[in-house]
Amino acid sequence: MLKTGKDHLEGLRDGRTIYIGSEKVTDVTTHPAFAHAAQTVAGLYDAKRASENLDLFSYEEDGERYSLWYLRAKTKDDLRRRMNCHKAIADMTFGMMGRSPDHVSGFVTGMTVEPSVFDTDTHKFSDNLLNYYEHCRRHDIYSTYAVLPPQASRNPDFYERQNVPVPSLQVVDEKDDGIVISGMKMLATSAVFCDEIWIGNLLPLAPTQVKEAVTCAVPVNAEGLTLWSRQAIERNAANEFDSPLTWRFDETDSMVMCKNVFVPWERVFVLDDANLAREIYIRTPGHCYGNHQSNVRFWSKMQLIVGLCSRIAEATGAIAVPAVKEILGRMAALEATLSGMIHGQIEAAEDWPKGYKTFNRRMMYAALNWCTESHSAIIDQLRELSGGGVFQMPASVDVMHDPEIKKLFETYWQTPQLEALDRLKLFKLVWDMVGSEFAGRQQQYEKFYAGASFIVRNHSYREAPWEMFHGVVDKLMSGYDVPDAPTKSAAAE
Predict the structure, then answer these.
(1) Domain shared by 201 and 91, yes or no
(2) Separation of alpha carbons 493 and 487, rounded Å
(3) What values do phi and psi take at 164, rounded to 5?
(4) pLDDT, tens digit (0-9, with 9 covering 90-100), for 261-271
(5) CATH no. for residue 46?
(6) What do you get for the CA distance between the two ends of the chain, in Å?
(7) Helix 420-434 to helix 437-447 angle, to the nearest 10 degrees?
(8) Residue 142, phi-psi category: left (phi > 0), alpha (psi -120 to 50), beta (remainder)
(9) Phi, psi of 262, deg, nearest 5
(10) CB distance 280 to 111 below 8 Å
């Protein structure tokens, strides 16, 4: 079943509990902190159902039609279909919403092509995973994940001394029909717009942390589950003209707080296995599927940034300066670099696991590293091209509502390149990209999107063919040996 936007909005009024500070939010579809972003999400569902988009956003299997992000790739063409779908979704949000419906579904889908990983001597959870996948694709579920412990939990000795529980989410009880979990997980981006939350562990756990080694799925409206949102940015936007990105693309981030939340056994995928809790992402294509989507999403954002760089250079007249053209050429080259890394993941696809195709993991992790490492410098380039122009603009477009002020504005803010209102619109968009609170969140988000830099680079280290690299060195060194000692006459010469 392919949901409509209306279907999804109705599902968001299902008794979930969200806090912004002490304010309790019960309907994200009407609350000023979330309403416009909720409409953006609904628009994604409606675009998917449009007849002209069916093949782009969905696929047919056994007479049923499902969202394309649930497609398990068996050919390079399948991988291309996934990429094209991710790109179209990302283009609709200009790369601003990272946890769109196609992200976490990619993790789940990638895991299902190697379900045996979920079976151990203690627990057989592969059927749980496969059944959950069927549940997600049949009901067009929008999921996010919370897969990191709260930062405060890194010092368990402190809590032991204080005689209070460690805040990290863990299993507190096992029953005949399921488990009970309590504690916190971070960071559930877009959770306020989602149907369910995948709870797990992307960071390694110590062998003693067996009760934290749980992977499960819970509805956002589960009894005892609350979302604690960061400061909502959308409500800061007075109108779309002055804050075009903030107005409709603040996907929000929330801490997940569980207080004795019951999870039935059929929604449990890992239990009491500290190693497996993380390895399910690496021993299956799950992590690769999900982060390929993140590469593609950044590509859409990169195209917007490059376009803004060029538009700003034109608007200020700086485009006539050869050095500025060089900068724009470099930005265009960077966009092409990322595009090449993304397409390369398909052209060099892996036959893994047997019977399936997976995006090339080394290239995917290289692109992931490139994105997290490069974003700040890319934004700074746009900032430099903008100069002081972003501060020369009126505070708001409401200057157009007063005839006298409007006349002054249109007279003195026009340039040979643009009329005053067009300049204002452009510079307001640029400010929302480089300097607003929304822009600040994007900066932090992109830098730590996939974890700290050492975590991202560890993926590349793990996947690197070190034996091949060593072989290149050894081959070169094997071609020469200790030279013969020179003769006395040769030494004298």
Answers:
(1) yes
(2) 10
(3) -130, 155
(4) 999 999 999 99
(5) 2.40.110.10
(6) 88
(7) 40
(8) beta
(9) -85, 135
(10) yes
Two tokens, residue 353: 């696991």
Res 489: pLDDT: 72
pTM here?
Answer: 0.95
Identify the DSSP state of 376: H
Give yes or no for a cis peptide into 424 (omega within 30° of 0): no
Q: What is the DSSP annotation of 7-24?
A: HHHHHT-SS--EEETTEE
- Specify whether 328 is located in the same domain as 217: no
Count of C-beta atoms within a 10 Å radius of residue 299: 22
Neighbours of 394 (CB within 10 A): 16
Domain final position from 281, 306, 337? 281
Strands of 268-271's sheet, edge to edge? Answer: 143-146, 196-199, 214-219, 268-271
- The answer to whether residue 165 scores a pLDDT higher than 80 is no
Q: Could you tell me the two tokens for 20?
A: 């912004």
Nearest alpha carbon to residue 359 among 336, 343, 379: 343
Read off the pLDDT of residues 428-476 as tens digits, 9 standing for 90 and up: 999 999 999 999 999 999 998 888 888 899 999 999 999 999 999 999 9
Gap between the Cα atoms of 62 and 71, Å rounded: 13
